[in-house]
Amino acid sequence: MKAPVRIQEEDFSQDDEIAALKLVSVRMGGIATFLGCARDFSEGREVSAISFDAYDSMALAEMNALRDEAIKRFGLIDARLVHRVGTVHGGDNIVFIAAGAEHRAEAFDACRWMIDTLKERVPIWKKEITPTGDAWVVPHP
Amino acid sequence: MITLLFFGPVADSVGQRRIEIEFSSGLRLGILRQQFAQDYPEAVRWVSFVAVNGVQARDDDIQIVDGSEIAFMAKFSGG
């Protein structure tokens, strides 16, 4: 079985990730997921592709810490986080997060917290490739 | 040796992803920050975080040991 936290170039299967999460326990009554996808339009301009760079070792350590923290903080049964690097195009998958809990409330809360916190704490950078040039994305405060 | 690592916009601005420099005793993070700003004034505009051996470091007095990996990083934009 694939590791619950991964950074990879290749695409992932949501079905496989959810199946892996469900295998952990039959006590899981709610699974909340977030799928981040590439858009072909951003800040008023067309986007041909998005390129991701990462400080792999630190990013993986931070994502593992995020998972551990989410499990403890929200009482999850388990969680999975997968982020792609390299180049993706409009409609492609970028990031997948799944939170499995006994009940839906903690699953929803944890899933939201994990994606919000991933954006703040995980060293990954996004460059939008457009017909008029490339630009690194600077997050809004 | 000390390894300086650059990613994303910082790497683009510096023009490379890693630089090896000689270790000298008494080296502190603040000295490395100052040297980086002096050598790469364009790249330093991007830098919001520094990590020492994979852990974010905010204290310029942190002592750098031989073999350390120092990453100069822009604001994160993953997800």
TrEMBL record, chain A:
Q: Which reaction does it catalyse?
A: 2 [molybdopterin-synthase sulfur-carrier protein]-C-terminal-Gly-aminoethanethioate + cyclic pyranopterin phosphate + H2O = molybdopterin + 2 [molybdopterin-synthase sulfur-carrier protein]-C-terminal Gly-Gly + 2 H(+)
EC annotation from Swiss-Prot or TrEMBL: 2.8.1.12
The cross-references to Pfam families, in alphabetical order and at most eight, read:
MoaE
> What UniProt keywords are attached to this protein's entry?
Molybdenum cofactor biosynthesis
Which pathway does UniProt place it in? Answer: Cofactor biosynthesis; molybdopterin biosynthesis
Answer yes or no on keyword Metal-binding. Answer: no
Membrane as UniProt keyword? no
One GO molecular function term of this record is: molybdopterin synthase activity
Q: Which InterPro entries match?
A: MoaE_sf, Mopterin_biosynth_MoaE
- Would you identify the family this protein belongs to, as annotated? Belongs to the MoaE family.
- Assembly: Heterotetramer of 2 MoaD subunits and 2 MoaE subunits. Also stable as homodimer. The enzyme changes between these two forms during catalysis.
Q: Can you name this protein?
A: Molybdopterin synthase catalytic subunit
Automatic annotation (TrEMBL), chain B:
Q: Which InterPro entries match?
A: Beta-grasp_dom_sf, Mopterin_synth/thiamin_S_b, ThiS/MoaD-like
Q: Which residue windows are coiled coil?
A: none
Lineage, top-rank taxon, reads Bacteria
Q: Which protein are we looking at?
A: Molybdopterin synthase sulfur carrier subunit
